Amino acid sequence: MNCFVQWTTWRKAPFGRLVPEMNDFVPVTELCSCSRNRTWDLFATESGADATAVSTEAISNARLNSKGFVLDIDLDYFSTWDPFWKGMYMKLQPWRVTLSNQFTCIFRPGSPNCERKAFCKLIERLKVADAHEDDAKRKLEWTQIANDLTLQYAEGVNAEENLLNFAKLLEKYRDDKAIRSEIWAAGPYLNLPHHESSQEEIARMVAELEQFLHTNALDVTNPPAIVTIAKSTGDQYLPPHQLDVVLSSVLQMLERVYGKLATKFVEYEPVEDAGTKREM
After folding, report:
1. C-alpha pair distances (Å), 54 with each of 140, 157, 258
2. What is the DSSP letter of 67?
3. Which of 36, 77, 83, 273 has a 20 to 30 Å separation from 149 between CA atoms?
4. Do residues 19 and 9 touch, judged by C-beta distance below 8 A?
5. Which family does it belong to (predicted)?
């Protein structure tokens, strides 16, 4: 049988925005026509020690109300860089990168959502205070907000020292708005996975995915309507030099599972809005 596979390249921007490489997109009118519209029951699953039972149950439940599925594969699952961490290390000393991460991420574990929201609001207020050009006003507001923020951190964390050191870090780059902006934006993302897999590890994970598809009858006995593959190389979530190895390994695995593949690379067109390209 033939299995249709398409892939593209996405880059991830701060705060969860997905941005196609070169700010491109596919017009909805070209993706599908009304006569081809279908309703999908979609779920996402992440492989892991505790995920097998959950994903198996989700697959079974999905089949009760649907006749087809889309298999979406992100290649940075097999090998991944954290581009925020990599970029910050080029501009800041390692301890300052760690400080930026701790300042924005360490608070009381298991906190209710209301406390998490309070923490995030205080961080945002602190960011606004840091933008003041008047030194006296900036330091006064920073001190007031910092007093409330110290109560949000976990026991054993020297919040006052962290806040003081973080303030010094920002002051060091007071005249460089670009670096200060990156410090604020990248902080929450500096604990993302950062592990460049060996070829042996890549081969093992591809084999595990192949076994997963067979185990859950997501193979030739129940093929997907389409397989989508994101290369994740735009911002180097997938190490660019490993793209050929990972992509070819995944495509070969899909051929073993589904037979001959009909592949297509999706090209995107730029969106112009008042002379400015839009992020999708």
Report:
1. 50, 35, 24
2. S
3. 83
4. no
5. Belongs to the UPF0489 family.
Residue with tokens 């070829």, as numbered in its chain: 199
Q: How far apart are CA 150 and CA 63, in angstroms?
A: 49
- Phi and psi at residue 273, in whole multiples of 5°? -130, 105
What is the residue type of 26?
Answer: V
Label residues 143-176 b or e (16+ Cβ within 10 Å = b). eebbeebeebbeeeeebeebbebbbebbeebeee
Does the CA dihedral 121-122-127-130 come out positive or negative? positive
Residues 218, 71: contact at Cβ < 8 Å? yes
Phi-psi category of 269—alpha, beta or left, where left has phi over 0 and alpha has psi -120 to 50?
Answer: beta
β-bridge mates for residue 24, sequence order? 270
Dihedral sign (CA 138, 142, 143, 144): positive
In angstroms, what CA-CA distances link 73 with 7, 32, 265? Answer: 9, 21, 14
Distance CA 118, CA 208 (A): 41
Query: Strands 18-20 and 276-277: what pairing?
Result: unpaired
Q: What gap in Å lies between CA 100 and CA 172, rounded to an integer?
A: 14
Q: Write out the DSSP string of 131-155.
A: T-S-HHHHHHHHHHHHHHHGGGSPT
